[in-house]
Amino acid sequence: MWAAVFVLHLLQGIPEALPLNPIARWEWVFPVVEAIHICGFSLLVGTILILDLRLLGWCLPRQPISVIAKSLAPWIWIGIAIQLTTGPYLFSSDPHEYVQVPAFRNKMLFLALALIFHFTVIRRATQPSRDAASPLWRKPAACVSLGLWLCVVLGGLWIGNL
User: Fold this and answer.
1) Nearest Cα to 21, choosing from 75, 80, 88, 78?
2) Where do runs of H (alpha helix) occur along the chain?
3) Quick one: which of 24, 30, 1 has its CA closest to 12?
4) Is 110 exposed, middle or buried (0-12, 13-18, 19+ CB in 10 A)?
5) DSSP state of 28
6) What is the mean pLDDT of residues 138-152?
7) Closest Cα partner for 137 from 68, 51, 55?
8) What Rg, from alpha-carbon coordinates, does the chain have?
9) Average pLDDT for residues 48-75, to the nearest whole number?
10) 12 vs 120, higher pLDDT
11) Domain spans, the chain
12) Distance (Å, whole) CA 22 – CA 42
């Protein structure tokens, strides 16, 4: 019970005290963290875009899908790590405001769906055992993946405008 009250006070802030969170204390921290967040997101979505376009057969047709997936995997993980580091930090700047913005809630929903879809369906579509065969479900899966990530991007863009 005591811990919950303490966390609640931290989230609400004490008006007369200096904020503990550097993002609320110095005005330059938020834009720097946000720039890193956008770079990480560009890395994450850009590498997934390459993979999805390959699944559609629109780029790198001579490369086996599994080789491309294996080459891009470390970059995808770096993008995810950047997102999971900077995203909650940006959220901590004003959690009460963010949870009230529908664009934020939609972005989080589509981010969760996109990550689950990537690590289940897309991961299955890029396995080495599937290189020789050309399953018909790869293209619709790539389209769904692109749609989910587009929703995440649009949600992120709308957060700042609402």
Assistant:
1) 88
2) 2-12, 22-25, 29-56, 65-91, 95-100, 102-117, 123-125, 138-159
3) 24
4) buried
5) T
6) 94
7) 55
8) 19
9) 91
10) 120
11) 25-159
12) 25
